[in-house]
Design a protein that fits this description.
Number of helices: 9
Oligomer: single chain
Radius of gyration: 18 Å
Order of helices and strands: HHHHEEHHHEEEEHEH
Largest sheet: 5 strands, mixed
Strand content: 15-25%
Strand order of the largest sheet: 5-4-3-6-7
């Protein structure tokens, strides 16, 4: 791991997470534990040897850990440690900066549901505490819950009070602020009040606030 060699908190932070791809690995783990194959799929363009090296560096720095899930879903996964979870506020601020000042998007740029959903994490939400809205986007499953009336996005399987299914393109347009009548989203099952609370939280989350 390269170091700046400066007695400065910012430089010390960048010593750990400033290498290319490091913060994007943290982004992928922000929604929950991921297998190596999940990370590889969620980071299009990263060479396998570079991913392995970054994971090793982040483990050594105490940002992520490697664990084995218990039966029946036995699998080796990576997840954020307490230090990794503490990066969430910094990522939220960088997202907001990226919306307003970041490089322009191109038609060839890739987009994944988890990337856009994380932009809504921490937003005020009317989802009742203890309730779960399941979101199915092009085969991926996410759980939207509330903690102290703010949105939490994760991939941990859980019983849902409501379920919404939509294509990734519709999700991106909806969260970018394009007009879309919530009542027109027909692929909603379960408690519609929970589903509508979730959708109202996601609406326009990618636009400048």
């Amino acid at each position: 791991m390269k170091r700046y060699g400066q007695v400065c908190p910012l430089a010390r932070a960048l010593d750990v997470v400033g290498e290319r791809w490091s913060m994007l690995i943290v982004r992928e783990l922000a929604v929950g534990p991921r297998r190596y194959s999940d990370l590889l799929a969620g980071l299009p363009g990263i060479p396998t040897n570079l991913l392995a090296g970054r994971l090793r560096d982040l483990q050594e720095a105490g940002v992520i850990s490697k664990t084995t899930l218990p039966p029946p879903g036995v699998a080796t996964v990576y997840e954020l440690t307490r230090a990794g979870l503490a990066l969430r506020p910094a990522m939220a601020k960088l997202r907001r900066w990226g919306v307003e000042y970041g490089s322009p998007t191109l038609e060839t740029d890739e987009v994944r549901p988890a990337w856009v959903l994380l932009s809504a994490a921490g937003r005020p939400t009317a989802i009742p505490d203890g309730h779960v809205c399941e979101l199915l986007i092009d085969g991926e499953v996410f759980a939207l819950t509330a903690s102290r009336s703010t949105l939490v996005v994760h991939t941990r399987p859980t019983d849902a009070h409501a379920s919404i299914t939509m294509p990734a393109g519709d999700l991106y347009r909806f969260m970018s602020g394009h007009p879309m009548d919530i009542s027109a989203i027909r692929a909603v099952t379960g408690d519609h009040s929970v589903a509508h609370a979730a959708l109202n939280t996601l609406r326009g989350a990618l636009s400048v606030e």
